[in-house]
């Protein structure tokens, strides 16, 4: 039987954490009783610099039951870094790891199917939403637009998949070889190339609390994904530059012809619109290029993606 570690990133989750812990504990104990996983399997919560009692609750849970473990980052490093920290800690202690969010919107009942897929030789099993009927129109529209845009920009990600997935030990080892600071795990995991499959589920409503991904954060996350995995925006800027150049040549020819025909008129409106349009294109282009340069700057510094301040794991203490 394989040892499973469940990795749960947490940021200000005090409202929902105890309920989540109870549900996950019941699930793991059920899997253990059915002899689908080893008794050493654990639920690991990763505290991503929470400002509430999240870490205190994690410590209480680890004292109550050895099935829980906790990892505390020294400061808030973002969801993707917190998730990676948990996975990298787990890879030396488990045979398989399953990552999911603390709000328990992902259906834990498909974990059985994930493990069955892994037993058939599948290294990576993606949890994929079967529909978005429960989402608001705005959220559904923005999510679908995001996936379509990523596909258009040749970024290989799984449609309607977030971070609910099973990964084998060797896929975790392979993931550890990626050293980039700008993390976008939804794009990195498919790059591993191991055999993969999907399980489909209906996403539940959040039990308590509020979403940690408001629109501003979602847009930032999407932009990070695009600029980390595609150079198409740079090529689009180049293409737009050529289009404007060709257009300016036609305008120049037209202006010369009109000049010689003596049909010149005051062109204040046209000139102003041209200046504002070209100026706007230039500013956007510089901004996109600057985003890529900024990412290169962060990568060259090679700063740690996260720093672990404290670990609470009863098995670790015994060793």
Brief characterization of the structure:
With 319 residues, the chain is α/β, with parallel strands linked by helices.
How many structural domains can be distinguished in the coordinates?
A: 2
Q: What is the CATH homologous superfamily assignment of the largest domain? A: Spore Coat Polysaccharide Biosynthesis Protein SpsA, Chain A
Q: Order of strands side by side in the largest beta sheet?
A: 7-5-6-4-1-2-3-8
CATH class of the largest domain: Alpha Beta
* Sheet with the most strands, sense and barrel status: 8 strands, mixed
- List segments where confidence is low: pLDDT < 50 over at least 5 consecutive residues: none
State the share of residues found in helices, binned by percent. Answer: 40-55%
Structural shape:
elongated
**Number of helices, where a helix is a run of at least 4 consecutive DSSP H or I residues:** 11
Q: Provide the structure class.
A: alpha/beta
CATH topology of the largest domain: Spore Coat Polysaccharide Biosynthesis Protein SpsA, Chain A
Overall CATH architecture of the largest domain: Alpha-Beta Complex
Strand content: 15-25%
Number of DSSP-assigned strands? 8
What is the radius of gyration? 25 Å
- Intertermini distance: 21 Å
N-to-C SSE series? EHEHEHEHEHEHHEHHHEH
Mean pLDDT over the full residue set? 82
């Amino acid at each position: 039987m394989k040892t499973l570690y469940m990795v749960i990133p947490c940021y200000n989750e005090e409202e929902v954490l105890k309920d989540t812990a109870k549900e996950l504990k019941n699930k793991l104990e059920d899997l253990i009783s059915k002899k689908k996983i080893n008794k050493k399997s654990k639920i690991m919560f990763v505290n991503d610099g929470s400002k509430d009692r999240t870490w205190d609750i994690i410590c209480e849970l680890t004292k109550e039951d050895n099935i829980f473990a906790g990892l505390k980052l020294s400061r808030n490093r973002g969801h993707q870094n917190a998730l990676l920290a948990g996975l990298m800690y787990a890879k030396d202690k488990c045979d398989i790891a399953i990552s999911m969010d603390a709000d328990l919107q992902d259906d834990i009942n498909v974990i059985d199917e994930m493990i069955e897929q892994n037993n058939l030789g599948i290294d990576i099993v993606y949890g994929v939403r079967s529909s978005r009927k429960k989402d608001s129109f705005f959220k559904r529209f923005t999510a679908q637009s995001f996936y379509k845009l990523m596909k258009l920009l040749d970024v290989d990600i799984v449609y309607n998949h977030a971070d609910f997935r099973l990964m084998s030990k060797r896929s975790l080892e392979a993931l550890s070889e990626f050293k980039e600071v700008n993390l976008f795990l939804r794009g990195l995991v498919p790059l591993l190339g191991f055999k993969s499959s999907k399980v489909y589920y209906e996403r539940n409503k959040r039990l308590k609390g509020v979403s940690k991904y408001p629109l501003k954060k979602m847009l930032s996350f999407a932009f990070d994904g695009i600029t980390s995995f595609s150079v198409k925006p740079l090529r689009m800027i180049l293409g737009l530059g050529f289009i404007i150049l060709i257009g300016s040549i036609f305008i120049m020819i037209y202006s010369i012809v009109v000049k010689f025909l003596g049909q010149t008129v005051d062109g204040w409106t046209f000139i102003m619109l041209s200046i504002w349009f070209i100026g706007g294109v230039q500013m956007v282009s510089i901004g996109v290029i600057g985003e890529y340069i900024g990412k290169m700057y962060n990568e060259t510094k090679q700063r740690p993606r996260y720093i672990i301040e404290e670990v609470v794991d009863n098995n670790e203490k015994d060793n």
